[in-house]
Amino acid sequence: MEKGVPIANLFGDEQKWLGKTVIVQGWVKTRRDSKAGVCFIEVNDGSTLKGLQVLAEEDKNYAGLLAKVTTGSAILAEGVVSASPGKGQRIELRAERIHLYGSADPATYPLQKKRHSFEYLRQIAHLRPRTNTLGAAARVRSRLSFAIHQFFQLRGFHYIHTPIITASDCEGAGEIFRVTTLDPTRPLAGGVSEDPYRGDFFARPAFLTVSGQLQAEIFALALGKVYTFGPTFRAENSNTSRHLAEFWMVEPEMAFHDLGDDLEVALAFIRHLVEVVLNECEEDVEFFGRFIDSELPARLQNAAKSSFEVITYTDAVDILKRSREGFVYPVEWGIDLQAEHERYLTEKVFGGPAAIIDFPRALKPFYMRVNDDEKTVAAMDILVPGTGEIIGGSQREERLEMLLEQMRLKGIPADDYRWYIELREFGSAPHSGFGLGLERLVQFVTGIPNIREVIAFPRTPGHAEF
Ligand code: 4AD
Ligand code: MG
What we know:
By secondary structure, the chain is an alpha+beta fold. The protein has two domains: 7-109, CATH 2.40.50.140; 130-453, BirA Bifunctional Protein, domain 2 (2-Layer Sandwich), CATH 3.30.930. 30% of the residues lie in helices and 23% in strands. The chain contains 13 helices and 15 strands. Strands 6-9-10-15-14-13-12-11 form an eight-stranded mixed sheet, with helices on both faces. A hairpin with a 7-residue loop joins β2 and β3. α4 crosses α7. The radius of gyration is 27 Å and the shape is elongated. The two termini are 29 Å apart.
């Protein structure tokens, strides 16, 4: 197969390529015919937002196939990189040869030149990566994934792979997908008295993981600093713009780190990721600023520079109670903060990202370390303007007696977590960690309002297409 030059490379060093003969391969974005027998074809290959203008002339030997070079078709163009007299680009390609890989019938091609709604594009998730917005979001997501590994690898963390199928419900919220090979339409042969798991694949209840944290703790208590980064699943029946049933989470876990250390790592992490996006996804960020969210560039600059506010849950509740904002959910100490409260704090009170720490014990899972007041736990939620919570983390309960008490209070059977308890019996040590939702992060750095646009194939209640 002939090898082309990524269009991003051409735009990256225009002087170097001027006068050179190159091949580009991609999809036709638009096509315009001039009266002078010249056809302007904009080709995009996904390497960058901008397409390359290809000039095709009707007296060349490819003239016969030009009629089929319509929006959406896949082509190869070979020619000389030339200075462009036109507006909007410095270089263009004067085509000497054009090859049509696959045409696209203009009458039926679902992506027309106009702006389509995100709802419509979700129905054509096999074609929407070719749009500017979805393509840019996919590039930013890719760059961020790499930056996540870089951040941890450069700081001595080990990348571990926690299981996707698990027997534990880390967050204890019961929002778990069951994994079974049993046929729900076939009753058990032995009737209702039969052990329902006897004939099942794992011979016990099994689920898709909601978090790799508990298993990451095992490795933190052996390798020191570790992280896991993979898909997680929640059967949360919330149809919101920030919830998915399948999403990607990054979870570092660190031995000999308390909540303050955890917070420091999390803030450095967010700042690093924002800087990478600002420095290395400039063109895409500029696009999002222009078409999706005009405040985005300023918000990112601010997040890269500003120090994050750190405030206790108790103080946050006081601020919310004193505010004159008419909240739908009334505020009292002990309530779970709602999206409206989070937005008020980050957007109106702090004007930037904020970390809330020390939440009521009753609100949080069994594994969080109980504070000396015995009413709160060493938890942290990091909130950003627009998106709300992007990170949830905590110092873990390393004291055996206290862990057992937490499990008793929350009704978690100790038998199911023998191994987790043993980590407190054999060489227990203070440790902390957090989870960052990749899609929430991509939303934050792109300004894309709905989480369904920052993942290729969104899974939400009632939707598992593609
Ligand atoms: O706050 P969460 O539930 O924390 C945990 O799962 C911990 N075990 C993490 C840890 O300490 N290792 O989830 C962490 C983050 C949230 O802050 C949010 O960004 C994201 O995961 N998240 C979701 N993203 C999309 N859709 C959902 N349904 C999400 N639920 C959580
Ligand atoms: Mg949370």
